[in-house]
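INTERNAL TRANSFER SHEET
From: sequence group
To: structure group
Subject: Glutamate decarboxylase 1

Please process the attached sequence and return the structure record in the designated field. Keep the field labels unchanged so the import script can parse them.
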Amino acid sequence: MASSSPPSSSANQNTITNPSNLRPTTYDTWCGVAHGCTKKLGLKICGFLQRNNSLEDKSRIVSSFKERQSSKNLLVCENIETESRFRRTETDFSNLYARDLLPAKNGEEPTMQFLLEVVDILMNYVRKTFDRSTKVLDFHHPHQLLEGIEGFNLELSDNPESLEQILVDCRDTLKYGVRTGHPRFFNQLSTGLDMIGLAGEWLTSTANTNMFTYEIAPVFVLMEQITLRKMREIIGWNGKDGDGIFSPGGAISNMYSIMAARYKYFPDVKTKGMAAVPKLIIFTSEHSHYSMKKAGAALGFGTENVILIKCNERGKIIPADLEAKIIESKQKGHVPLYVNATAGTTVYGAFDPIDEIADICEKYNLWLHVDAAWGGGLLMSRRHRHKLNGIERADSVTWNPHKMMGVLLQCSAILLREKVII
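Return from structure group:
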């Protein structure tokens, strides 16, 4: 049983009455308090401590306070300098032109003032975008905009425009455009204006590079690789052998998937063209995106060889009809190549039964693509992910982060389960 006897008197002396054990912590604490106070009150605290401590301690406390106060004053001066540097001043932009901005000699101040004006224009637009009392669109007919209203002019001048005119054009461009981030904007399948995405757009535009090679864009190239790998993992492809690329939009991503499928089964097409392959057939939902037929035309399949599969009353592919049309194509001597399952159709928002379609593709050795341009964002949802059950069995997936994930337009990815096919 633990002893309940009181501690010894020597222990009490060491822990309670010996001030030397408390001084370092006490001094540091009070110095911190003094630092956090105004100069006058801080000096009073130091004076109080000086009356109760040795000369050495007094000197240490006062010098510590002065050092911290000096650092604080320096920081304030730096902040004032920064604020003055980024402060808008009255500037006559009517006599300034692009040639007066950086990298022109003495161009830093005009550049700063011009960009601050642009940011002000953008911030006013952002505020109005989220204001429910404003219009989604200040509508005008095309001829009105082309003819010029209220000084708005789309014609290209043969002479340089002043920075003042460029700022006016910036305001008018936003004034007569559609506020896609407005709470009452319900057209298209994008998700409005995201502030982090906006900052990212500013950053990438400032970097002003492409992504041809690592040499020209080392950070962006690695970011793309890591992001695409993460997207493949979310799909359910846990291996490291997958591939992918960001593209200009979902239509191009879908077209890339057909090209990959054709090259996978008929690699000679790369050098010999469509003359080296039999008549290839593509299968897709009757409610699928129009990009499927466009890809069939652009890639030389022919729109007649893009076969539409019937859907049920909820807009989903009927697997039995898919299998029947695959058999029918084979009986005609054609070669079924590719099946597109849609995860989120444009009109109905329907999700095709991917698992059942995957069974058919495996049975007849067809490439399975999932067009999840719209619905891919649900892979991030614990509640709704089940709508894409079976997507991990696909050979390729189109996924547009700009549709449900807050990424600004355009951002589409084509993701492949196998590497070195694109």
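Handover comment: The chain has three domains: 17-85, 98-187, 206-416. The beta strands are 243-247, 280-285, 306-309, 335-342, 367-372, 396-399, 412-416.
Transfer complete.
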